[in-house]
Amino acid sequence: MMRKLGTVLLLLATWPLVTAGGGNNPGIPPTSKITGPAISAIVIIDTHNPAVTATAGQGSIRLQKGTLVSGTTFVVNNTVVFDLGCRLSTAGTPLESQGPSLTAVRFLGPLTRFVPADPSGLQGDRLTPLFAQLGITISGTNIPVITDIDNDVCTPSTVAGGVLSFIATIQLQVPH
Asked: Which of 13, 36, 95, 131 is the S-S candidate for 136 at Cβ 3.0 to 4.6 Å?
């Protein structure tokens, strides 16, 4: 009984750290809705700790809408920390109650959580030109969000890190 209580207290004590580390996705605010078009994306991110490799946190995304394609490279925003490495499953982690897919827990929601969108930031705005090539204007009321994730793979699949790739569906979050 004491062991279970200890586990619960540990989870409660570390919950802010886990969720701030790219833990749970924030969901869609009740004042917004998701609308089309559905854009296909391929996302590739190096989930290693920066002490392991110089490419840690680097990513790329390729979008396709009909016959139009666009892509960019980026360094993942510090809102997503890979303290759980390149794991695909939430099993055995503090995020287990949020569903079976750790990739979904980390990346469903606004792309701005991990792709830079601040024009004054170190990397500049990577989202606006990415979507402009598809004829889509991004703004504070037209926000790209990942609504579905499929075929997530870690290469190599280790807790220490690896390269995560997945196919995503992106739609737009707009006000009601």
From this structure: 131
